[in-house]
């Protein structure tokens, strides 16, 4: 890699590596959703069990956020991310051979802990490579593209491979959903090798100016890593911003988990499709959500950069606006869709809105020292993931509680969307309160320039 020494454009290669890493993390978190109909039939489970299967991952995922983030600050993202993806591939292979539902829960929990080694570490790495002039756009390109690719594999590719493998084709002796899961194991291994070769933890590794030194000099002078971290954790505004994050997390746990199933029910009831046809059609609708995530989030992220740098508009104000839109969108989902086109348009826009969570990471990196970014983002994500996992675990029960027999797909799933509305409303309040702290940080940084 000596030919890349002092090449400032290498930061875009780092971005690509982070996108690939996050795609593997997002693939593993939703690996069961696109094949849920097969699991329901083989293991004789229902909505409650699917909710628990999803939440088992995210409880462990929440626990892993802070340790992996702190290790990234200390050892560097290249090592942490590569090891995490390698362990993720191992967990994927174990899931392919899972003997039943209870074994799958244990494997999903292990997947969650090792899967935490992609998102926060990648966020920390990118915050070290890109300044606040580009950070909002870059973090949203990372999350939108990386997450979208992983979800596309989960929601569309895995069901299609599973459908192909039902006809007698096998892969290492496995067929159906097990074969598609094992195939994704090899995809994950390839990503791990690419990240180990191409990832660099900090610009200083290539002899480039350190973003950490540039921005930390403005934020805190002569303060150790431990002192800067403890100072941030003692700041009550840090915890308020954490609750601005959790509304995104809850929506991200509920919508991708239930949208393919909700859309399949929509197609079955409105267009009379069979179970298999509706499952594939539901995956296609989930792909519309992914398109919104990939295309919309970078544009909104760039807008937030422009508004912050040119007009000092706090990111937290923009975050509050997105939470308001999410709340309204979930309310619409709880009602009958007037047409498939309107359904697709709504899903596309929601795909962008609920994935604007990197704005919270950008705000944290700009209010508190960048050098503590891994630990702080890990803490924010831990709280959000615990809340999100609890919401996902409870979502199946909410669906049953608020459902009305033979009343249609919208009544069957409206309790899930009510749950998302509650937590998004909490985030609206937290975001509006956090505006004060971000404005203070903007004034302090302006005076230091």
Automatic annotation (TrEMBL):
<dbReference type="GO" id="GO:0016020">
    <property type="term" value="C:membrane"/>
</dbReference>
<dbReference type="InterPro" id="IPR011701">
    <property type="entry name" value="MFS"/>
</dbReference>
<dbReference type="InterPro" id="IPR051337">
    <property type="entry name" value="OPA_Antiporter"/>
</dbReference>
<feature type="transmembrane region" description="Helical">
    <location>
        <begin position="278"/>
        <end position="296"/>
    </location>
</feature>
<feature type="transmembrane region" description="Helical">
    <location>
        <begin position="80"/>
        <end position="99"/>
    </location>
</feature>
<protein>
    <submittedName>
        <fullName>MFS transporter</fullName>
    </submittedName>
</protein>
<dbReference type="InterPro" id="IPR020846">
    <property type="entry name" value="MFS_dom"/>
</dbReference>
<keyword id="KW-1133">Transmembrane helix</keyword>
<dbReference type="GO" id="GO:0061513">
    <property type="term" value="F:glucose 6-phosphate:phosphate antiporter activity"/>
</dbReference>
<dbReference type="GO" id="GO:0035435">
    <property type="term" value="P:phosphate ion transmembrane transport"/>
</dbReference>
<feature type="transmembrane region" description="Helical">
    <location>
        <begin position="376"/>
        <end position="396"/>
    </location>
</feature>
<feature type="transmembrane region" description="Helical">
    <location>
        <begin position="341"/>
        <end position="364"/>
    </location>
</feature>
<feature type="domain" description="Major facilitator superfamily (MFS) profile">
    <location>
        <begin position="1"/>
        <end position="439"/>
    </location>
</feature>
<keyword id="KW-0472">Membrane</keyword>
<keyword id="KW-1003">Cell membrane</keyword>
<feature type="transmembrane region" description="Helical">
    <location>
        <begin position="12"/>
        <end position="30"/>
    </location>
</feature>
<feature type="transmembrane region" description="Helical">
    <location>
        <begin position="179"/>
        <end position="199"/>
    </location>
</feature>
<dbReference type="InterPro" id="IPR000849">
    <property type="entry name" value="Sugar_P_transporter"/>
</dbReference>
<feature type="transmembrane region" description="Helical">
    <location>
        <begin position="237"/>
        <end position="258"/>
    </location>
</feature>
<dbReference type="InterPro" id="IPR036259">
    <property type="entry name" value="MFS_trans_sf"/>
</dbReference>
<dbReference type="GO" id="GO:0012505">
    <property type="term" value="C:endomembrane system"/>
</dbReference>
<feature type="transmembrane region" description="Helical">
    <location>
        <begin position="317"/>
        <end position="335"/>
    </location>
</feature>
<dbReference type="Pfam" id="PF07690">
    <property type="entry name" value="MFS_1"/>
</dbReference>
<feature type="transmembrane region" description="Helical">
    <location>
        <begin position="416"/>
        <end position="435"/>
    </location>
</feature>
<keyword id="KW-0812">Transmembrane</keyword>
<feature type="transmembrane region" description="Helical">
    <location>
        <begin position="50"/>
        <end position="68"/>
    </location>
</feature>
<feature type="transmembrane region" description="Helical">
    <location>
        <begin position="105"/>
        <end position="131"/>
    </location>
</feature>
